[in-house]
Amino acid sequence: MQAFTAVVHKEEEMYVAECPEVGTVSQGKTIEEAVSNLKEATELYLDEFPLTEERKTLMTTFEVAVSAKA
């Protein structure tokens, strides 16, 4: 068993979950459903395209200047 990262954000009425280590993406009506669907999509992807090396994801934050629109 191997652990992966799920990055989740909301788009309109759906939650979108992405696995940055593999590049798989899925969605669901709830966060739990999106992550569950992502797990299934990632398992299916890895069955077809196994990882040849372990990938470590580095997560950080950054700031950008945002100008107000009139």
Summary of the model, kept short:
26% of the residues lie in helices and 23% in strands. It is of the alpha+beta class and 70 residues long.
Rg value? 15 Å
CATH domain topology: Double Stranded RNA Binding Domain
Strand content: 15-25%
Helix content: 25-40%
Overall outline? flat
What characterizes the major β-sheet? 3 strands, antiparallel
- Widest sheet: strand ordering: 1-2-3
The ordered string of helix (H) and strand (E) elements is: EEEH
Instruction: Measure the end-to-end span.
Output: 51 Å
Structure overview:
This protein is an alpha+beta fold and 70 residues long. It has one domain: Double Stranded RNA Binding Domain, CATH 3.30.160. The chain has one helix at 31-48; strands at residues 7-11, 14-19, 24-28. Strands 1-2-3 form a 3-stranded antiparallel beta sheet, with helices on one face. Strand 1 and strand 2 form a beta hairpin. The longest helix has 18 residues, at 31-48. It is flat. The model has no long low-confidence stretch (mean pLDDT 92).
Topology:
Layout: E1 7-11, E2 14-19, E3 24-28, H1 31-48
Task: Give structural attributes.
26% helix, 3-stranded antiparallel sheet, 23% strand, 1 helix, Double Stranded RNA Binding Domain, 70 residues, alpha+beta, 3 strands
